[in-house]
Specification:
The structure is a single chain. The protein is of the alpha+beta class. It contains six helices and six strands; from the N terminus they run H-E-E-H-H-H-E-E-H-E-E-H. The termini are far apart.
Length: 185
Amino acid sequence: MPGTTSSASPLPSHVDLLVAFTNSIDHELGTDDLTTPAELTRWLVDHGLLARSTRSTPEDLALARRLRDGLHVALVAHHDGEEDAGALVEAADALPLQLAVAGGRPSLAPAQDGVRGALGQVLVAVTDATADDTWPRLKICAADDCRWAYVDTTKNRSRAWCEWGCGNKAKTRSYRARKKAAAAR
């Protein structure tokens, strides 16, 4: 899957979580890992965020999809430096966080258990990515037929595509359009 990182990734686990959660929908193939409450539960369990015995409700599923959509919109905005976190903030309203202290170090933690607590971990990952400055590096591929989340690891944060294949396709289309336009003159 484009835009994802391997298990040997040098990226922090909270960044991997944000990429995986955002990529739980495949815009190119039209598939979605979160179409039923059971699928939401399975996704959260598979990513170590929820106990297997916990069940999701249709309301949890709707919230998870709003959260994912809000993340997607926020990551699209990272291409132009404009922040658009309104949808993310709206979804976050239903996922309160609280201050926790462990080993003398404060951190944010979900204020609820269960599915809402697991989804709250996604918000904690957003705050962690903000704290370590990886948040602005999280982007959505500029290829209209892809739209995968990825991490821009370039020094100047200028990467626009999740992988070379998407960029190559876009550049090839542009080249062919210019050649066609030149030939039509």
